[in-house]
Amino acid sequence: MRNVFLFLKRYSVFIFFLVMQGVALSMLFSYNRFHQTAYGMFSNEVAGKLNKRVNRVEVFFTLSEQNESLREQNARLLSYLPSGSLYADTAFRLVTDTSSIDSLTSYRQFQYFSAKVISNSVFLQQNIIVLQRGRDQGVEPNMAVLGTDGLMGTVIGVSNNMSTVMSLLHRQSKVIAVLKKGSGLGEVSWDGKDPRFLILTKIPKTIEVKKGDTVVTSPYSDKFPPGMPIGYVEKVDQDQETNTYKLKIRTAVDFYTVQHAYVVKNLLQQEMDQLKSTLIKE
Amino acid sequence: MSPIIKNIVRFAVMLSIQVFVLSKIPPLHQFVVPYFYFAFILWLPFRIGRTALLFIGLATGMLTDMFFKTPGLHTAACLLIAYVRPFLVNLLLPKEATDWGNEEPSKKTMGAVPYTTYLVVLTLLHHFYLILLEWMQFGSFLYFFGKLIATSLVSLLLILITDLFLNRKSKLR
Question: What residue of A is the nearest CA neighbor of B22?
């Protein structure tokens, strides 16, 4: 017994080192479960406050790019205004409406919240964006995040006033995407190499793909609004092993200078979840 | 200035440079992601005991991880160099390291060649462990190797330049 204590005393520093290594490594490899717990919350608020101050200075360096991209978005939105389009004249023939349901009213599926980016990185393997909008302002985990030019990522952690977003430039990020031409269902991920490019896989070779084709979010997703640009095809590679392409796509959002974001809330999410859960029960 | 306050200020400055400058500049190449904050551990006074050094390494790593949102990654690497440091100092210095008092490792206190060896070995060790952990999660071997070499070189360059700037006054040799 005495020898055991002597051993412990002699190697106490080494044992302490091993224990701490174990703690650090278990934190690292259980990242997905861990990031929502206390440490994540704490670091979010503390580091977020500091980042917010630094960001006030940083914003000035990218002001002109931000303005330009917001102007372009404004122009896009203006073209959707009803005053910009004409309606076909349907009054020359008398038709009796027999439909008992008013099919002309629309209801809203997606609601957009604007949010300020207070911290961002592009050169790590797991790039996380921090937004200055949290649970108190209506953000919940698993919401989509858009930039002014296209998709940016998904909310993974929320604290009271801030939220962390898994950027598309995250090794664990996977987004279902389609080609805007209307065919092929693929998966966008990042290979961790160049922050300007993403990888689109699982598009079958039967579809013709050219450089410059637009890749957008799929209509089958319940969190991303359909048709949001993700990127543009830069290089077409034939995957020798499978019957699919491996496409290199340039990101629609410039992740180096991103400063504004929109958090997207799916108002039908609850209804959809309920429907799915009844399916599982049966 | 008391050595404790001096080191706290130094730590704050080095971590700020790492997080707000080095992480913001566009990377030169996908392999080059310079790390610099850990030199704080290399420049701590000789007098600090092994357990205290481990605690400082732990705190350094955890604070860095808070900013990088990578719980455990930098903590593991910082703990490793904090653990290895006393052995390396004893190996490179003829005298018992605790006799040096508040002196810090520098060119003057250790001599140019042992000091450079000390920096190179600990930098390589830190980067090797950090990039290995990153590689174990994902990535290819070529990526691992290229990143290790390129990042280590740039980090060492940064540390040596900072060393010239700091001009830490210690006369023992």
Answer: A123
Sign of CA dihedral A121, A229, A190, A126: positive
Smallest Cβ–Cβ distance between A24 and the set B27, B50, B72 belongs to B72
- Cβ contact A46–B66 (<8 Å): yes
> Tens digit of pLDDT for each residue in B84-136?
998 888 888 766 655 666 778 877 777 888 888 899 999 999 999 988 887 77
ipTM of the prediction: 0.76
Per-residue pLDDT, B101: 67
Is A211 within 8 Å of A248 (Cβ atoms)?
no
CATH topology of domain B3-166: Arp2/3 complex 21 kDa subunit ARPC3 (1.10.1760)
Residues of B near A (Cβ–Cβ under 8 Å) read: 20, 23-24, 26-27, 30, 33, 50-51, 54, 58, 61, 65-73, 75-76, 79-80, 83, 133-134, 137-139, 143
DSSP strand pairing (A163-170 vs A197-204): unpaired
- Are the C-beta atoms of residues A232 and A215 closer than 8 Å to each other? yes
For A119, name the nearest residue in chain B, comparing CA atoms only.
Answer: B67
Helix (H, G, I), strand (E, B) or coil at A17: helix
What does the pLDDT read at residue B100?
Answer: 63
For domain A175-251, which architecture applies?
Beta Barrel (2.40)
Residues facing residue A166 across a β-bridge: A128, A154
Select from A26, A164, A256 the Cβ nearest to the Cβ of B26.
Answer: A256
- What value does the mean pLDDT of chain B take? 82
Q: Could A17 and B83 be called an inter-chain contact, meaning their C-beta atoms sit closer than 8 Å?
A: yes
